[in-house]
Structures are given as C-alpha cells and as structure tokens.
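Support request from a user on the community tier.

User writes: "When I paste my structure tokens into the form, the page sometimes reloads and wipes my input. The last time it worked, I copied everything first. Here is what I submitted, just in case something in the input itself triggers the reload:"
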C-alpha cells in the first residue's frame, strides 16, 4: 500500500491498516514527519486547536484517547474543554503511529519516504509512484492523502504564512497586510505577535468578517436537520429562523450551527448542483465564520488586539498586487484606502479548485486524465468510498483519496471528527478489496504445480 501524504488523513489510514490484524506493507510518502501535515507542523505554541480535546481523539470509538494522552504527556490537568496547542496534537498523532507500527512489527512493515511524490501510474497488476529523488515504489493500491492545497499564488513576492520566509527579517514596528480574514489570517497574526511584532496588522477580505470564537452553550433540546431540497436561499432562511427561535429561548446560535454538523453532508447531497454552487458563492464565507471558530483564548487575544488598534479589519479588496509597499484597497463601503505596509501575506486559505494546483503529483494525474475535478469545480471527483474517477467517469480501483480532495462530493471533509471516520472506513474498504477471500480451485493449484 502506498500512501502519499502523512498529515492527519494519511497517518490515520496507516494507523488503521496497522491495527486491523492483516499483513500489510505500507510506504508512506511525505517530506514532512508523519502525523504533522499542514495543520499540526506549526512551530508556535500559540497556534491552538479550534476543537476541544474531547472531540479530537484519533478514534471515534475511543473519545477519551487524546485527552488521556495529554494527561499522560505533560498536561496532567487537561480537561475535556481544553483547546490544546496544535503542535502537541501533531506529537500525539506521531506517537499513535509509532505505537501502532511497534505493535504490528513482525506482521506489517512500514517505511516513511521523506520525499515528494511527483508521478503515479499503473499497469494491470501494480501501481507505481515516482519520487522526486528518482526512486520508484510499487504496490497494489495508492491512497492520495495530499490534503489542503496551498492558497492560489498571487505574485512571486507574496508568501503564504507557511512559507519559510513569510515573517523573516521584519521590522517589528512597521505595518503588515494580510489578504484574507479567516483562520489562516488569525494564525498569521498570532505568529507575528509571538515574534514581538508591534506594528499594525491589517486584514482585508470581501466582507471584513473575522471568525467567531467558541463559548460554552446549552445544547438544543431537539436536533435541527433542514432539508437541502429547499435550495440555498430557503435553507439560509430556515437556519436564521431556527437561530432566532433558539435565542428567544436563551439558547446560543452556536448550538444551532453545531447541531447541524452530523447532517451537513446529507443536506449538501440534497442540494441540486446549481444550488451547491450558490452555497459556495454566497453562503460559504458566512458559514465558515460561524462554524470554524477560534479557541476562546485566541478569540480574547484577537478582540484585545482589535480594541487597541493592533488589528485593523477592512471590508474590500486589493485593487492590484503592488510591487512596493503601497497597497490600494477598494473598500466595500466605497472609496479607496492606501496603506503603506512592509509586507503582504497571502492568507486566502486553501485553493479548493484542484485544476489550478501546483502539486506535481496532482498535476500529472490531472494531465493524464487519471483523476478529474469534481463537476462543481471544487475538490476531485470520487465515489462514496473515495475511489477517484478518471476522465471517462470510470474508477480504476487502484487510486483512492480522503479528506480535502473529497470536497465537492462532501461539504464537511476537513476537520478531525469527519476525517477520522473517513480514514477508518477507507482502511476497512482497502482491506476488504485487498484481502478478498479467494475461492480455492484445486485445478489452479495443480496447474501452478502446488
Ligand atoms: C492551519 C489549520 C488548522 C487546523 N486546525 C484544526 C483543528 O484545530 N481541529 C480540526 O478538527 N481540524 C483542524 N484543521 C483541519 C484538519 O485537521 C486538517 O485540514 C487536516 O490536517 C487535514 O489533513 P490531511 O492529512 O488531509 O492534509 P494535510 O494536513 O494538508 O497533510 C497533507 C500532507 O500531504 C503531503 N503531501 C502533499 N502532496 C504531496 C506529494 N506530492 N508528495 C508527498 N507528500 C505530499 C504534505 O506535505 C502534507 O504533509 C486545521 C487545518 C489547518 C490548515
């Protein structure tokens, strides 16, 4: 089995395959240390999970797993509501993987190739993956767990917050402009603050809205599961009506949004494709700031920075990418604002249109028609098991995926509670197709000289 990508998704598939009791050989390819991926390889302690510890177990059937790990690994006072540092979560995943490898030794083998995969193809028997260092790996199946694509490039001199030089050599007192106002921009601000940055940090986004923060709430007395068949506009109206009713009874809006979580993908599937596009165009930003919330501590930090003017949020768009530090913003309310900034950072979030990807493996698979974008233009076209469809609409059976590439077919496919389910189901599916019971035909054994 080859798994390309050792973030949460790829690591969890490997862990489940190792724990299943079958003999399996796993080649995991990722230039990063397994378990970290984009989200959990951060170096900053201030980058916290945006989900409380009790909901971050790697295993849905063992909800205490992460919490107990925290308590046994330097956080004895951790409780269910803790928003732990993301880098600690990466250590947890790494530890669970290493434990699973040790427990399966003698039965399974596991190799980590610290390299990028650049090309993949198959013949009638095997799948082959070419690595950047020239090595070629062969297996029966390939899982693409390449995760979150980077933001769409804006200009060569504008980095994403994850680029090694994004915050290097900054004058602490000069202003910085972040394009985007979601969780990526919040991450960027926290990284700047951790480096002692004192200048203003400007956020610019179309609506100028920051994500909300978590706070405890009383759950809804009854679950709320509106039907997607009503279309985007009525759906929004229905959610708003439910929020008003809940608030009239003293229940916070967060309870309504969170109660939809288990049925969000069902609602998504009930929407007609044109309604799905409307949701993506008009409602997704609104949904994201309510659904993907900041840890309460981070919410307090951001509110304080807004109050004392270190964060300034603008609703509008950058007129053009400046080559110097003069950034002109067309304000949503009208007029132009000119800012003098020492650096602009691209915090627009993952570019979910895979047709634009710079990932060499994805590009080569797209170019050869072995994979195609989802019909609505987000994510890749897959079956319900995550088998990737090719340009003829057929599934070759050797190429599967999970996580962010399943966007489009699914709406919720990036957070741990969804990904752990997908990883477990994918591992089960893989073992069912690889270890199919073989019908024993004596003549075959005789023909093979056995
Ligand atoms: C900044 C951030 C914070 C988040 N915080 C939370 C949170 O608090 N709680 C929560 O539930 N969810 C959170 N999420 C969402 C979710 O957990 C992540 O999206 C999750 O990490 C997705 O895992 P993944 O393995 O699919 O992708 P990724 O984490 O993106 O990992 C993909 C891996 O694939 C590798 N890769 C890609 N292409 C190749 C290639 N060609 N060859 C070799 N390797 C390749 C990359 O190096 C990377 O390590 C967060 C997401 C982000 C981006």
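"...and here is what came back when it finally went through:"
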């Amino acid at each position: 089995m080859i798994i390309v990508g050792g973030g949460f998704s790829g690591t969890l598939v490997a862990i489940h395959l190792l724990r299943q009791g079958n003999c399996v050989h796993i080649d995991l390819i990722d230039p990063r240390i397994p378990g970290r991926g984009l989200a959990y390889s951060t170096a900053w302690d201030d980058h916290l999970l945006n989900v409380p510890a009790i909901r971050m177990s790697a295993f849905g059937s063992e909800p205490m797993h992460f919490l107990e790990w925290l308590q046994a690994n330097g956080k004895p006072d951790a409780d269910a509501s803790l928003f732990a540092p993301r880098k600690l979560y990466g250590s947890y995943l790494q530890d669970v993987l290493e434990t699973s490898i040790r427990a399966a030794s003698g039965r399974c083998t596991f190799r980590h190739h610290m390299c990028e995969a650049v090309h993949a193809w198959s013949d009638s028997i095997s799948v082959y993956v070419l690595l950047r260092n020239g090595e070629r790996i062969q297996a029966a199946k390939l899982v693409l767990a390449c995760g979150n694509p980077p933001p769409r490039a804006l200009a060569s001199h504008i980095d994403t917050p994850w680029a090694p030089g994004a915050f290097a050599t900054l004058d602490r007192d000069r202003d910085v402009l972040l394009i985007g106002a979601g969780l990526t921009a919040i991450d960027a601000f926290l990284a700047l603050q951790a480096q002692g940055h004192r200048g203003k940090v400007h956020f610019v986004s179309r609506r100028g809205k920051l994500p909300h923060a978590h706070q405890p709430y009383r759950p809804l007395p009854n679950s709320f599961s509106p039907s997607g068949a009503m279309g985007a506009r009525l759906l929004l109206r229905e959610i708003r009506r439910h929020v008003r009713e809940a608030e009239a009874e003293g229940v916070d809006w967060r309870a309504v949004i969170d109660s939809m979580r288990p049925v969000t993908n069902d609602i998504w599937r009930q929407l007609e494709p044109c309604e799905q596009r409307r949701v993506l165009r008009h409602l997704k930003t609104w949904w994201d700031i309510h659904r993907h919330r900041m840890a309460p501590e981070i919410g307090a930090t951001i509110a304080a920075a807004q109050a004392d003017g270190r964060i300034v949020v603008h609703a509008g768009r950058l007129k053009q990418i400046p080559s110097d530090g003069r950034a002109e913003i067309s304000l949503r309310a009208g007029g132009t604002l000119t800012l003098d900034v020492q650096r602009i950072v691209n915090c627009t979030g993952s570019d979910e249109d895979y047709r634009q990807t710079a990932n060499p493996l994805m590009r080569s698979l797209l170019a050869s028609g072995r994979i195609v974008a989802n019909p609505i233009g987000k994510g890749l076209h897959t079956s319900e098991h995550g088998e990737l469809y090719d340009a003829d609409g057929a599934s070759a059976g050797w190429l599967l995926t999970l996580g962010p590439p399943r966007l489009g077919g699914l709406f919720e496919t990036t957070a741990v509670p969804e990904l752990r389910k997908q990883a477990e189901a994918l591992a089960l599916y893989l073992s069912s197709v690889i270890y199919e019971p073989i019908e024993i035909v004596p003549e075959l054994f005789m023909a093979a000289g056995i």
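Agent notes: The reload is a front-end session timeout and is unrelated to the input. The pocket of flavin-adenine dinucleotide is lined by residues 4-10, 29-32, 37-39, 49-51, 116-117, 145-148, 187, 359, 361, 403-404, 414-416 (CB under 6 Å). The chain has three domains: 2-47+85-150+351-434, 176-212+293-346, 228-291. Escalated to web team.
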